[in-house]
Amino acid sequence: MNNYSLALNVQQRPEVLERVLRVARHRGFKIANLSMQLNSNNSTSIDMLVESEREIGLLTNQINKLIDVIDCRVLFSDPSAALVKQKG
Questions:
Q1: pTM of the model
Q2: What domain range includes position 83?
Q3: Among 45, 62, 69, 80, which residue's CB has the most CB atoms within a 10 Å radius?
Q4: What is the C-alpha separation between 33 and 11, in angstroms, rounded?
């Protein structure tokens, strides 16, 4: 299983986190870690660690289409973590 770290900058709206999580679930990604911080400029920063066998572009393309998402970046991808888990 591949691990990916995402950094999202979204508008401060009550429903935005639910929309992001729904897209991740529908695209077949498991949320391993999630942290969220409210910013002073009426935006929210969300850092997510997701796991999946699927290509990360399937998730980021759909997240970027959400109306409340300002920016979505892949900070790192760690496909070697799957090899370590399988061997160890």
A1: 0.84
A2: 2-87
A3: 69
A4: 20
Average pLDDT, the chain: 90
**Alpha helix (H) ranges present in the chain?**
16-26, 56-65, 80-87
Backbone dihedral angles phi then psi of residue 24, each to the nearest 5 degrees: -60, -45
CA distances to 2, 11, 30, 63, 80 from 51, rounded to whole Å, are: 5, 25, 5, 16, 12
- Answer whether 50's CB lies under 8 Å from 29's CB: yes
DSSP codes joined into one string, 25-41: HHTT-EEEEEEEEE-TT
Structural element, H or E, at residue 50: strand 43-52
Return d(Cα 35, Cα 48) in angstroms, integer: 7
- Residue identified by tokens 């935006």 is 43
Contact (CB, 8 A) for 66 and 23: yes
